Amino acid sequence: MKRAALALIAAAAMAPAAVPAVSSAQKVKNDKSEKAATKLANAVTVSGILRHERALANIAERNGGTRVSGSAGFDKSRDYVVGQLQNAGWTVNVQPFEFPYFQELAPTTLERTAPDQHPYADDEFATMEYSGSGDVTANVQAVDLTLPPADEPSSTSGCEASDFAGFTAGDIALVQRGTCTFGEKVANATAAGASAVLIFNEGQPGRQETLSGTLGGPATIPVVGLSFAGGNELATLLAGGDVTIHVTTSTLSETRTTYNTIADAPGGRADHTVVVGSHLDSVAAGPGINDDGSGSSQDLEIALQYQKAIKNPKNHLRFLFFGAEEEGLLGSAHYVDSLDQASRDQIMAMVDLDMMASPNYARFVYDGDGSDNPGEEGPTGSDIIESLFTGYWAGRGLVSETTPFDGRSDYVAFTDVGIPAGGIFAGAEGIKTPEQAAKYGGTAGIAFDKCYHQACDTLANLNTQALDEFSDASAYVTGKLVMRENDLSDNTETLKAKRVKQSDYKGPQLIR
Fold first, then answer.
1. CA dist., res. 512 & res. 156, Å (int)
2. Are 389 and 473 in contact (CB under 8 A)?
3. pLDDT > 70? residue 498
4. What is the pairing mode between strands 315-322 and 244-264?
5. Which of 79, 134, 374, 456 has a beta carbon 3.0–4.6 Å from 222's, enabling a disulfide?
C-alpha cells in the first residue's frame, strides 16, 4: 500500500497543472465502495465456510457418498442452503426443473475377440455419458475414417447419414472424434442399425488420451470412448480382415427433477442486479466437497455475512445455487431460459465461482477481455470483472493468470445472452506446469485437483490456504459490484450475436 501511495504522489507531482485534482467528494465515494468491499471480505472466514463444507460432507456420507442432482443427497443439500439463507433474512425461491438423469449400474467391459483376444484395461476405454445398456458381440465396421483435407484438420467421421452408406446393420460402428458432437455421430450410427459405437480420439497433441464425454441425451445402444492409439489399432486391423468386439454396458437413463435455489438480498437497484453463482450438485462418483462444495459453501457464507458488512447497497444482489451442472450446465441454462428479455437486461454482471480450494491450486481468472485468449472473451463489461479480481490479488502481492471462457461452467448461459461475466477458478484435472509451481507453490506434473470427479473429493481434499485467498477475492469483488455506481455495459439483446462460437465442452464434459 505504501508503494502504491508513493506512486500516486509521484504521478501527481509530474502531472500538468491544468489537470484538476480528484474532488474530495469523489474520494469519499470511492472510499465507501472500497471500505464496504473490504469489510465484507474480512467478515468471510475459512472457519465459517468449513462449517458449511462439513454439513455438505455429512449429507453425502449419509446418502450413498454423493450429492448428485436427482438424488436424496442433492435434495438435502438444497434444504440446508435454503434453511441457512431463510434464517439470515434472504428471500429464497426454489425452482424445480426436469433433466435427463444418467447412472452406470455396473462396470462396462470391452474385449477384442478376433482376430486375437485382447481384454481392454479400465484405462483404455470410457463409457460415454448417456450410453445405452447392452451386451453386444459383433464385427467392427469403420465409418469414413479417411483423413480430411489439410484445411479441415478435424475428422468428419459419422457426422452425416451418408457416411453410413453400405453399413451392415448389427455391426459395431468405429468412428473418430471431430467436427460434430458425439451425440450426432451416435444418432447417425443408431439410424444405420449399429449395435454399438466406439468413438476414438483424434491424433493431435493433447487429443490422444482415452476419450470421455457426453452424448447430451440418452442413447439406446452401448457407446464407448477409446484413445487415438486404441482406435487406430482397430482401423489398422480392419485393413487386414474382420475384427470382432464384445462390449457390455449397464446404465440407467431416466427423467428426474432437480432444483435451482435463488436467493435475493433486500435493497439495491433491481435494474443493476449482481448475480453470484455456484453449482450445488456433485458427480455421482463422489461428494463434491471441492467441486463445487467449496464455491457453494463460500457463497453461502458471503450471503450470511452480507447484511452485516454492507448496509446501503447501490445494486441488488442475488445468489444462485444451480442444480444439474455436472449433467451439462442444465440448471443455469434453465434459469436463464426462464427469464424474459427485460429480466435479463436487469442483470448487470454474473460472477461464477466453481472450485475454490483445489489442493494443488493456481489462481485462474476468467479472461474477460480476451487479451490472452482472442476470440474467447466475454461480453462487453467482462473485462471490468476480470480487472477487479486480478487487481485485488495483485494488491496483496498474489500473482494470477487468465483462463478462457471455454464453456465449462455456469457462466455460459449468461454470456450467451450478452450478460457480462467473470470469476475465478483454482484448477481441476489439468496438470500444473513447472512455471505454475514456481508461481503458486505446489507440485508440478500432477493435477490441480487429483480427486476431481472422484470419491476422494472429501474434506481432506480442500486446500484451506486457497479457500482463504479465493473467498477473500470473491467477497471483495461481490462488494465492489454491489456498490458500483455505473453499469458494466449496455446489456441488451443486440449483444447476443457476440457469443456465437462452438465449444468442445458443455459443462465439465466433452461434447465433440
1. 11
2. yes
3. no
4. antiparallel
5. 134
Burial class (CB within 10 angstroms; exposed 0-12, middle 13-18, buried 19+) of 138: middle
31-90+265-510 shares its CATH topology with 101-253: no
Q: In this structure, which amino acid lies at residue 429?
A: E
Helix (H, G, I), strand (E, B) or coil at 156: coil
Query: Can you tell me the distance from the alpha carbon of 2 to that of 195, in angstroms, rounded to the nearest whole number?
Result: 70
- In CATH, the architecture of 31-90+265-510 is 3-Layer(aba) Sandwich (3.40)
d(C-alpha 474, C-alpha 365), whole Å = 11
Q: Tell me the C-alpha distance between 119 and 109, whole Å.
A: 8
In this predicted structure, the answer to whether residue 465 has a pLDDT above a threshold of 80 is yes
Provide the residue ranges of all domains of the chain, joining segments of one domain with +.
31-90+265-510, 101-253
For residues 177 and 231, what is the distance between their CA atoms, to the nearest angstrom?
Answer: 10
Query: Taking the domain 101-253, which CATH number applies?
Result: 3.50.30.30
| 23 pLDDT more than 70 | no
Distance from chain centroid for Cα 416: 15
| CA dihedral (398, 402, 405, 407) positive or negative | negative
Contact 480, 309 (CB under 8 A): no
pLDDT of 29-54, one tens digit each?
456 889 999 999 999 999 999 999 99
pLDDT of residue 21: 44
* Residue 450 confidence (pLDDT) above 80: yes
Dihedral of CA 366/183/109/326: which sign? positive
- Measured at the alpha carbon of residue 324, what is the angle toward residues 321 and 327, in degrees to the nearest 5? 145
DSSP one-letter string for 408-431: -STTHHHHTTT--EEEEE---SSB
The model carries a pTM of: 0.86
| Active-site residue set | 325
Pairing assessment for the beta strands 125-127 and 172-176 based on DSSP bridges: unpaired
The whole-number pLDDT of residue 206 equals 78
Q: What are the start-end ranges of the E strands in 369-460?
A: 401-403, 421-425
